[in-house]
User: What shape does this take?
Amino acid sequence: MTENRFNHLKRKERDERRRLLLESARDLFARKDFLKVNVREISKAAGVSVGTIYNYYADLDELFLDIFLKSAEEITQILDHENREEFPSFERLCKIYISYLNQNMTFYQMMGHFMLGGELSVEPTKKLNHIMRLLMDRIEGCVRAMGIQKDTRIVSHALFSALNGIMISYARYPGRNTEEIRRHTLKLAGIIAKVFEEKSN
Amino acid sequence: MTENRFNHLKRKERDERRRLLLESARDLFARKDFLKVNVREISKAAGVSVGTIYNYYADLDELFLDIFLKSAEEITQILDHENREEFPSFERLCKIYISYLNQNMTFYQMMGHFMLGGELSVEPTKKLNHIMRLLMDRIEGCVRAMGIQKDTRIVSHALFSALNGIMISYARYPGRNTEEIRRHTLKLAGIIAKVFEEKSN
Amino acid sequence: MTENRFNHLKRKERDERRRLLLESARDLFARKDFLKVNVREISKAAGVSVGTIYNYYADLDELFLDIFLKSAEEITQILDHENREEFPSFERLCKIYISYLNQNMTFYQMMGHFMLGGELSVEPTKKLNHIMRLLMDRIEGCVRAMGIQKDTRIVSHALFSALNGIMISYARYPGRNTEEIRRHTLKLAGIIAKVFEEKSN
Amino acid sequence: MTENRFNHLKRKERDERRRLLLESARDLFARKDFLKVNVREISKAAGVSVGTIYNYYADLDELFLDIFLKSAEEITQILDHENREEFPSFERLCKIYISYLNQNMTFYQMMGHFMLGGELSVEPTKKLNHIMRLLMDRIEGCVRAMGIQKDTRIVSHALFSALNGIMISYARYPGRNTEEIRRHTLKLAGIIAKVFEEKSN
DNA sequence: TATGAATGAGCCTTCATTCAT
DNA sequence: AATGAATGAAGGCTCATTCAT
Assistant: This one.
């Protein structure tokens, strides 16, 4: 019993330290392309030693995944907040999502990393699937709220895909600055929203 | 005159050798994630020495870009062939594109590489923009043929984005095999096609 | 306070390890032309891994420079020791310097490396200038002690140059063995000493 | 007989082509540090193919040596020209030599290359020794003309060494520009001249 | 003789991960 | 649990030299 409590406390502490680590890394990645960052920089940003990172994460990919999951969770929460009274329109949903992505390069960069090259093992895959399902639930909520009744899950996938595609296709369009990219991607988000809306009528 | 012809021949030979190199690399990348391949493997696959690679490409990124451009060109040609008599429907366009991507992971992997992390210099950027414009022209052709009259260019961007997004979001969905992925991505392509079609009515 | 002391200790340890690395490299260079040695050999000679070298030096040139500086310092100390009671005669100064150079090929080899081809950045250049000034101070001391009163600094430069020139001109005279070279260079040192002495009268 | 003449002609032609090669390389090295130049650049500068270089020189070091010898010969000729009526003073000799070196970095750079690291084989060594002896003869001429009667050969060596040393010690003094270096090295040359002159009185 | 594409050993450097303290 | 020095495989790239044409 005592030991359980003790363990419980220890786990809480551990989770808290892990969270701190995660947040420092996120801050760092907001300033610097995560693929060009190395462990030493991460540890320095977190104010801990390199070894400590490995006390909390088996390897860097696990940390990356955690950051990705954190972002997915964050978006989910943002959508939940929007949903409080009624589901947002596609227009609003798309703009919220694309705005978030414009401010969090890391999210779609990591999506790229895991989807295009990463090889997750079983446990991480489960976590990933779980969180993605939660996010998809919110999107599906909107889809339903928009009056679509058939194939709502797969339509949600399509909508989600389309939005991600905007970023991968135009987030770094050579020759455009951050503001121009924001505007262009939001415009595209608007179009995606509109075509999905028209379907629902 | 003579010299011109001679140079012309030499350049043709060189282009031909470059093409052979390119094709070997493409074949290799069809079997193995291009980010996990190193120069030595590429040279072995091409049956040349490491140094030879650098006789044709300044660095690996230049080779990668060339492969990407080649694929973009190939898709453009496929669409041109389709267009011969009349422009394909969205349905057909989307399925052709997604089918191609399913058979050429490298294309969207490299799109990810260049869009999410790459830093192209001026000349490569120009080549990239040029070829993408050609591809976009074909898509815009379909968009117009479908009866959309306003904002055809940006709608084309949106359609293109949406399709790319399908791959980045689901091409490696953990736990699914190649065939399942093909089916799922084609399904999503179908939905994208439909929502864009409905817009055009 | 505690942390200061701790840091102090750690820095001392680090300095000590750096010194060990330096000494192994010097030993190696005594046996083998430093330009024909590669990192792996250096690391092997030091009994550490390649990576460790880069924990202490940003690149090989930094290590080379450190070795050069170390030698300059050593000569300075030898001269200081000589100066204890009175400044050595030119004869003695020249012979000491040339003897040292005969036993430390690396010193003038590196002088050649940095002076004829190297491109030092700001910080290294400062360190180099500082140590050379210290060495020159000793030479100038002798120059003054020999009764020369005017232009002592530039005369010191001339003397220093002349001695270095002996080595670059005859240290590897083809067809002569180590002993013959030692004797010849010392003889030349004697002449340089004599002509500078005569000036001082 | 005929063949002899033919061979003779061919040899002359060959020598002429070799000379052309040599001159292009010298021009190139006047603009760019010879240690940072590669064969391709040399061949391009000469307007021939890489392979052609190897038709005239067994390896690059042979070419380098030839350039060095050429410079030594040139200096010898300059001194001969000066000597036409009477031997130049030390002052003049030293300034001529240092001026030449200031305008021909390559000469002392290559001296450094061969003396500090190079490993010449027998034949090249002979050529090197021969040309250096010719140069030394001129210097010795001056030494004698200045009234020195004993040890004239070794005094010449010492003088020669001292001058070379000026360049290796100060030719690239960090933070000084070309003109400052020219002035400083000439000043040092003046001092060397003076101390040797005083000896001769 | 001239060519220049091909060669491939060899180089320096990086960096995720480990492990003794 | 925290540390951070040590590790060493791995990687991209260079370039003098060769040799088939």
Chains A and C do not touch (no CB pair under 8 Å).
